[in-house]
Write a structure and sequence with these properties.
Layout: H1 3-19, H2 25-55, H3 59-87, H4 89-107, H5 113-175, H6 178-199, H7 224-235, H8 238-254, H9 261-280, H10 287-308, H11 316-347, H12 354-362, H13 366-383, H14 385-411, H15 416-430
Length: about 450
Amino acid sequence: MTESAQEARQGRRSFLSALLPEPGPGRLLVLCTAVASLGNGLYMAGGAVYFARVVGLSPAQIGIGLSVAGVMALVLGVPVGFLADRFGPRGTTAVLALCKAAMLVFAVFVDSFALYLVMAALLGTAEQTGHVARGALVSGVMGREGRVKLSAYMRSVFNGGFAVASLAAGFVIAVDSRSLYLGLFWGNAIAMVLVAGLYMRLPRVAPQPRQPRGRREQSAVRDVPYIMVAQVSGLARIGPTVLALGVPLWLVTHTDAPRAMAAWLMLINTLMVVFLQVYVARDADTVAGASRLQKWTFLVLAVACAVAAFSGDVPAWAAAATLAVATVLFTLGEIWGEAARWGLRYELAPENAQGQYGGVFATGDALAVIAGPVLVTTVPDRLGAVGWLLLAVLFTGSLALSGPVTRWAVRTRVPAAQAAEAAEESNLQGAPGATAPQQ
């Protein structure tokens, strides 16, 4: 083999290593994510248009369905996480994928707002609670050493697959045919069935046994420091909402930048996430590393908002350049914030309760999901540059809270040795032939 051929092969390997983990369960999980991202991209890009154009729903009605789904997912995240711990995350994740497939089939027959509301609520709940169960599955399959890095691989691949599927959905929207729209639903349903089958090929993660009688059941909803970490960490997810909704609306209504620039800004975001997420997450597998990344997250998001404030009353070229810089900063905040979330979510949770703790951590998204879209579109639109500076103040305040709440959570963790002893005692109590506790 020539030297140039060897260099080309090494280049291909380094490129693949940025997108794929080593062969094994991790790569299979990434494959699941890739298939799911293609299905999600098809539905998310074309579903709302179908319900508006073909079914005749108003944008407000479509938004209500999505909001109901978000609230239900927040409420049911902890119970689903508990089920993942008790019955095993692999089967729970696969069942939720099949539930999502069933709702996509149901979507084909939706012809009224009432049916849409039921479908959207159940579909969104299956989707979001599936993330909770999958987080426990990733932790169980990959262990402490590999779960944060694999989460980064999965997010990188998801963004790439979602972007490709969105382009395909754009073709369907351009044709505007009912049969093609329904093809998006069927395609996503088939993808979810395939994903469920792939999940079941992963190694089995043993379910967590019940606590011995007389011992208080471990409960994430009583872990106030962990809940506070989740709420502060969730504030960082307002950043991607700013980029996806606030920046394009601001560009079109308050700047002289070319309207097509909005699409280019999202392309910058997608490429950065695909190629940088794994690299950025390498230091987030400890609480200290994740906490440090979270501080950088809030700092860069605050700076991004301040930069965006200067794009209003400037020439078109300057507005475009300023928003491009802001987009890079928002995207750095996004990839740093996600890596920090994985580290804090996993490392501060007991190993025998990753499911229910993941469900509690997901409640931190409440403000970003429910109030975020209104906040990031209304405040800059009504107040102009001052609105952007107010968003910067929000992220600066989050920065001030980040360190103290994380240190509080660290101080209140159960020592690893004590947790291992409790788990061993629990296993002994549940083993065949074990002596039942005295009444």
